[in-house]
Hints:
The complex is a heterotrimer of chains A (549), B (166) and C (45).
Chain A: H1 8-40, H2 45-48, H3 55-87, H4 94-116, H5 134-164, H6 172-187, H7 189-203, H8 212-240, H9 242-247, H10 254-267, H11 284-318, H12 336-359, H13 364-367, H14 372-401, H15 408-435, H16 454-483, H17 514-537
Helix pairs in contact in A: 1-3, 1-14, 1-16, 3-4, 3-5, 3-6, 3-14, 4-5, 5-6, 5-7, 6-8, 6-10, 7-8, 8-14, 10-11, 10-17, 11-12, 12-14, 12-15, 14-15, 14-16, 15-16
Chain B: H1 10-36, E1 65-70, E2 73-81, E3 87-89, E4 92-96, E5 99-107, E6 112-116, E7 122-125, E8 131-137, E9 141-146, E10 159-165
Parallel strand pairs in B: 2-5, 4-10
Antiparallel strand pairs in B: 1-2, 2-3, 5-8, 6-7, 6-9, 9-10
Chain C: H1 6-10, H2 14-41
Amino acid sequence: MKQYQLSTGEKKFIGSHLLVAILALAVGSLFGPLQAFEHAGWDFYPYLKPFIKSYYQGLTVHGVLNALVWTTFFIMGFLTFNVMFGLKRPLKNMTLNKVGFWLMVVGVVAAAIPILANQATVLFTFYPPLKANWAFYLGLTLVVVGSWVEGWGLFMTYIAWRKENPNERTPFIAFASIITALLWQICTLGIATEILTMLLPWSLGLIENVDPQLARTYFWFTGHPLVYFWLLPAYISWYAMLPEQAGKGKMFSDSLARLSFWIFLVLSTPLGFHHQYVDPGIPPAWKFLHSMLTFGVFFPSMMTAFTVVASLEHAGRKNGGKGALAWIGKLNWSDPSVAAQLLAGILFFFGGIGGLANASYNVNLVLHNTAFIPGHFHLTVATGVTLSFMGISYWLLPYLTGKKLWNPKVAVAQAWTWFVGMIIFSNSMHVLGLLGAPRRVPLGLAPYVPAEWNSRLFQVGVGGAILFLSGALYLTVMLMTALNKEKVAEEVTVPIAESMQDLSHTPEWLDRWAPWVYGTLALIVIVYGPQLFDMIKNIALTSPGFRVW
Amino acid sequence: MSTKQMHIDPYERNWMIFSAILLVLFATAVSVAAFGMGIQVPAPETRVDPRTVAVDPNSPWSNPGLREIEPGKYDAYILAHAIPNWEYLPKEITVPAGSSVSFYVTSGDVQHGFKIQDTNANFMVIPGQVSKLTVKFDEPGTYNFICTEYCGSGHAIMYGAVIVTP
Amino acid sequence: MAKKDKEDDEFRPTGTIAILAIFVITLIAIWTTIYMILVGRGGTL
């Protein structure tokens, strides 16, 4: 059966997302190892002085480009692909999506200029009253607004498809992508409010002071669902593509996959206080409620773990795998896209464990703002998500360009070096955190570092070096593929795992939008409303800005 | 559309039930620690004006330091500031072993963190807000408190210590 | 849409249970370790 074909123009559009994403990753990832080296006592920052003034400026570049730009551009491109390919139709209004894309590009440039000029060394959380140049806040706003516009384009496309196909079950990849885009629209209201009502007018000199506690609360309204915005596209690939790639496995449970996406939509926003457990300005009762909801959102990830692993096991058994665990070896490990995503998934298990500890209310007293936190999110966003996206790009780039993947063996090595480097880096960061080492600190300079941290700090540097190599391999594979003269023999087949059950087993209520969306909004109002209302009512605009870097 | 029952594999159903039970157990353990053992996260204290908190004579942080409330019970008022040279005031406090110290920490400029090593005191310091937690120091020794939130170019050197004498 | 294979009906995800069992044991061990650090350090009120 011939697959649905995207037009050359559509492929180019998705390819432009990939291009910006990878450029951001290339620059941003340069600075990750520099941080790790600094911890090990090999500080290169003094040599970078003409361009980069400090560790913290490098950390800002790393966080903004990797956590915000690489992810957002890759995700918007991937979601757009999933909607078109899944629904087998072009975008309803390509111009609208292009406008959204270009808004994001302009936003990135606007934010990059002050960052590079050391006018926005505020890290990717930009907590006021650290005060960046206005162009930084404006740039971030444009990125968010651009992603909204692209999201609207996807919703319009879905609505048009629904009109043409009133009785069909929404194909899974399109279904899950629309939910992800919707989640993003809802949760970014927090950061938009923070920037538009406080930070932007403040940086332009229109208002004198801000309320830092309220700003943090707006930020984390967006900050945790942001994690799911990163993660859900990887889940889409793990659920609906990876089993096919790994050995023609089928998706074990279409219904539960859909149900887990709905739970993610409903629960991922109303739990932002779990990033603010140790903030002074929020009553413990509200924090406790958010912690319970955080336990709730762990549940669909447990469901995902089962369905994804079972789908992979199905693939492994089809390939002749036996035993309780030996089937794992029968998966297509020689396919770099498979290797990358399997390894990403393995480390993501451990990311989940650390995340549950962080989220456990008072347990956060042991972990808050220690090195445990970057240790944790380098397993989630920097591996579970990023290594999966790299894996996806190993088939997506040949699909979009018609060029053969350059040297798949190097690509497989890239996946393994990322895996090994991240284990060393992340394990030592977790241990350092438990020993009390703070995050966001050039520990090579800190006067309070006890000798017992040294061996771990050295391991951080070793992990960083391996990751640096892995990042370089990835960029090489991408660049050489883009330049490859060798074309793919025929159109690259998009890997889609079919459902093990007949789709008629997927109940109709899993394809109805209104109740879930209203439920989401209602829960947000209940769980955020009273406290947020109280904080806005008692707003204290008493903090002037500081530029202390 | 057909309205057949949702199909759930029995293995997966059991896994879901097990997951739910596990999460309830974790939530219970956390609740016991919070409400049974008094291991709590910070609650809202008074609010202050960060522009005047260090100079207003009515503000305890205009004269930061240790106050003995009753024998073995202390309040420690600590001011975190980035300007001019990233430090806590006071930089050091000394109490005898067995003391219970309530820390009231606020910031005169940007956001900071406050984490006393080897204790459960670990919280954000946010301008305009007062963060409070209490620690009982039983073992003599030096307990560094360090800044755990990025606060500008001197962040890495920002720390102080609680000295617990025998 | 998806045509049913006979072997799909007989597929029992026993390997999945094995992997998830390892995961859960690790999860409980790590979580409990950190929880015990918390409890060992005592109250904050």
